[in-house]
Design goal:
Helices cover 42% and strands 20% of the residues. It has helices spanning 20-28, 31-42, 48-58, 64-72, 80-89, 102-112, 142-153, 170-173, 187-192, 205-212; strands at 5-8, 93-101, 116-125, 128-134, 160-164, 178-182, 195-197.
Length: 220
């Protein structure tokens, strides 16, 4: 069945850095202070939106332009641009669903011509981080977002490709006709995927899709 939609995770799947929050803490010099709540957030002992707000509070006053510049320094995986463009040329619509940050996702949206993005927000006031947030996709929340997206676009699960690297992406895999794990974090991710790319490199993806099912990329 021909693919009509490809849903990508962002961090670790299209871009190299796997955790954008750790990345910002490290680049902004707030990583040591974040350890006061990092373990509790990771273990789920802090509600997701509160964890996001604690992160953003440490970045309060940082210029938006500086955060945008830091994310631009985070490189794309090899083949990311070419793969997205090739899928689009075959008539496949492209979406990003990420538990990372919207400020990053919209950069990638503009770079690659992505139709739809969903991610979490840190808010800005007068061009600087305000400390307030909007948590649109908590950990474990990607599945519901994908279901809404499929319904909105009128695409069946069987016509959808899902590409991700972490355990939160398994919910995407479960709602797609074909799923791809990119340098997966764990056996759970690896075994949930139809196709596994062992390295953080998207260049083999199109050939692997064609080998899996030659009808997937027949074109518009």
């Amino acid at each position: 069945m021909r693919l009509k939609l490809a849903v990508f995770d962002l961090d670790g799947t299209l871009k190299k850095v796997r955790d954008p929050y750790v990345y910002l803490h490290q680049r902004l010099g707030t990583w040591p202070q974040s350890q006061a709540f990092f373990s509790d957030g990771l273990a789920g002992r802090i509600p997701y939106e509160e964890w996001l707000r604690l992160d953003a509070a440490m970045w309060k006053g940082v210029p938006r332009a500086h955060i945008e510049a830091l994310f631009r320094q985070n490189p794309y995986l090899p083949g990311a641009r070419e793969t997205v463009q090739a899928l689009k040329a075959c008539g496949v619509r492209i979406a990003i669903i990420s538990t990372g940050l919207l400020i990053h996702a919209v950069q990638v949206q503009a770079d690659l011509g992505v139709e739809y993005v969903a991610a979490n927000e840190i808010l800005f006031e007068a061009g600087r981080v305000s400390g307030e947030v909007r948590a649109h996709i908590p950990e474990g929340g990607k599945g519901a977002v994908m279901e809404d997206l499929l319904a909105h676009m009128g695409v069946r699960s069987a016509e959808c490709l899902a590409v991700g690297d972490g355990e939160s992406d398994v919910a995407l895999f479960q709602r797609a006709g074909v799923s791809v794990a990119v340098a997966p974090h764990s056996d759970l991710v690896r075994t949930a995927a139809d196709i596994v790319l062992p390295q953080p490199d998207l260049r083999p993806l199109l050939d692997r899709l064609r080998a899996f099912d030659p009808t997937l990329l027949e074109g518009p």
